[in-house]
Amino acid sequence: MKLRPLQDRILVQRVEEESKTKGGIIIPDTAKEKPAEGRVVAVGNGKVGDDGNRIPLELKEGDRVLFGKYSGTEVKVEGEEYLIMREDDILGIID
Amino acid sequence: MKLRPLQDRILVQRVEEESKTKGGIIIPDTAKEKPAEGRVVAVGNGKVGDDGNRIPLELKEGDRVLFGKYSGTEVKVEGEEYLIMREDDILGIID
Amino acid sequence: MKLRPLQDRILVQRVEEESKTKGGIIIPDTAKEKPAEGRVVAVGNGKVGDDGNRIPLELKEGDRVLFGKYSGTEVKVEGEEYLIMREDDILGIID
Amino acid sequence: MKLRPLQDRILVQRVEEESKTKGGIIIPDTAKEKPAEGRVVAVGNGKVGDDGNRIPLELKEGDRVLFGKYSGTEVKVEGEEYLIMREDDILGIID
Amino acid sequence: MKLRPLQDRILVQRVEEESKTKGGIIIPDTAKEKPAEGRVVAVGNGKVGDDGNRIPLELKEGDRVLFGKYSGTEVKVEGEEYLIMREDDILGIID
Amino acid sequence: MKLRPLQDRILVQRVEEESKTKGGIIIPDTAKEKPAEGRVVAVGNGKVGDDGNRIPLELKEGDRVLFGKYSGTEVKVEGEEYLIMREDDILGIID
Amino acid sequence: MKLRPLQDRILVQRVEEESKTKGGIIIPDTAKEKPAEGRVVAVGNGKVGDDGNRIPLELKEGDRVLFGKYSGTEVKVEGEEYLIMREDDILGIID
Predict the structure, then answer these.
(1) Summary count for chain F: helices (H), strands (E)
(2) Where do the TM regions start and end (chains A, B, C, D, E, F, G) (predicted)?
């Protein structure tokens, strides 16, 4: 089973960040929300503009991306957790 | 009787998910809303853009789709329950 | 007297649904709002787009339609009750 | 003195509806708001679209129209009460 | 000193309405807000549309206009009180 | 050091108004907000429209302008206080 | 590791302002929010307009900029703190 996002949506697999120090102490989240990291698993075909042309996404499969911690909708595909969000929710690409 | 959705709307038949374990124990919904699954039964002709051209839908009859649990309006056509929603409410296509 | 809707509006005559069982028991409305059914009696000429062209309606006189239970404004024309609403309030056409 | 509405506005003279029965009993308004009736006295030249062209109104002087009971702004011109509203506030034309 | 309004703004001098009867009794404002009257003293060059062209105003210096009682911002130019508002705040021109 | 505003923003230096009478009595602000006066120190290159063309500003360096008392963001450049605001916040030019 | 902002976003490194006097006294923030200063570290490729063309940013790497104190989202790249924000959040360029 594969999930193909519609229009300007992308499918992202969250990359779990290490929230423990090497000595095993849990680091509490600071008050300020930090963005989360993920890998783009699939991208939509892009939105159709007012002139009828489809605007392709800037992101492509495999991109490592940063996004707001609470962005997107959780989806489970074949037992794996993913996030579906709009490209506009992505803050940047990690090269 | 058939129901033809207008413009960028689609008619979706919900695919009931198994909410019981094999042993028969009911699995409670988690706090986080999970998307629902359905099959596209009919699609509209698409919206008319500002330039007067109709923008056809990306979805077609038969597509299996994911959508937000509370998306759409319930309709009963010849005793069967369907949902009418806009294409934009669809998160992705399951291949 | 006739009523001609303006722009993207339509005039709809509600089709009363049978809310009693054959045995005469009144069926209470469920919590979830169900759409109502009607017949299109008149349609407007369509809205004028940004390029100055009128976008004709997809609906035409005689269409049987579904719409949200609380959509539109009630109008009385020669003693008959109608609803005026925008085409966008129509969920679908019943063929 | 004459009042010329600007852009997509129209000047409407309300047609008072008979709110008494023939026997003189006052009929109370029902809970549901009914639209009011009026006659178009003057129309604006239309709004200027994004392409710089003026979009003429669909209504013309003399049209009998229906509008939401609370639409428009009251104006008094030479002792007579009128309403100024946008064409979009008009629900339909009575032929 | 002169004040030139920017874009789609106009400079209006309020025409005080007689709020006393001939016999000198003050007429209280009714609950319903009535529009105020003024004279256009200066007009802007118009807004620039999406296509880069300036859309000239429909109003011109000297027009007598009606506007909502609380429209605009008060300005004092050489001891005289004026109002600066957008053309869209003007309801109509008094001929 | 110089500050160059971006897009449709302008840099304005407030002209302090005399808030004392000649006899030295402080005049309290009236309830109604009066606009403030300033001089345009720098202007941006203008916004880019939907067609990709930059729309130049109507204002230029040196213009004396009126703006809403609470418009803009305060900036300190080399010890001097300025305001950065959008051209649309300017009510008019004083000639 | 490098972070490439998407579309009309930029990556900014905050320039800490001296908040002590030479004698070491801490200067409290005034009630009025002052903008913060930063250096542009990376810029996106620009947004795609309605006509399908990408609108390049006005800012470029290396620009010293002013922005609202609470603008942007904090990101940590290789131990360094950055801010990701939209170009529109930038008030001006310091030359």
Answers:
(1) 0, 9
(2) none
Reference C69, options C17, C27, C21; nearest CA is: C17
pLDDT tens, C36-75? 999 999 999 998 877 778 889 999 999 999 998 889 999 9
Angle subtended at Cα C86 by Cα C80 and Cα C89, rounded to the nearest 5 degrees: 100
CB proximity G17 to F under 8 Å: no
**pLDDT tens digits along A13-36:** 999 765 545 555 555 555 456 789
Q: What does the pLDDT look like over C5-34, one tens digit per residue?
A: 999 999 999 997 655 455 555 545 554 567
Does F6 contact chain G (CB < 8 Å)? yes
Question: Within an 8 Å CB–CB cutoff, is residue E95 touching chain D?
Answer: yes
For position F9, what pLDDT does the model report?
96
Residues of A in contact with B68 (CB under 8 A): 73
Q: From the candidates D15, D19, D91, D94, which should be mutated to test the interface with C, based on the most C CB atoms within 10 A?
A: D91
Cβ–Cβ contact F15 with E under 8 A: no
Beta strand G9-14 with D80-86 is unpaired
F52 touches chain E (CB under 8 A): no
- Encode pLDDT of E5-41 as tens digits: 999 999 999 997 655 455 555 545 554 567 899 999 9
Q: Which CATH number fits domain B1-15+36-95: 2.60.120.200, 3.40.50.2300, 2.30.33.40, 3.40.50.620?
A: 2.30.33.40
Q: Which residues contact C45 (CB under 8 A, 6 or more apart)?
A: C6, C7, C54, C56, D58
ipTM for the predicted complex comes to 0.79
Interface probe, candidates D10, D45, D55, chain C, greatest C C-beta count within 10 A: D55
Residues D59-79 have a mean pLDDT of 92
CB contact under 8 A, B91 and A7: no
Please provide the CATH number assigned to the domain covering G9-15+34-94.
2.30.33.40
CB D69 within 8 A of CB D36: yes
Contact E50 F49 (CB under 8 A): yes
Architecture of domain E9-15+35-94: Roll (2.30)
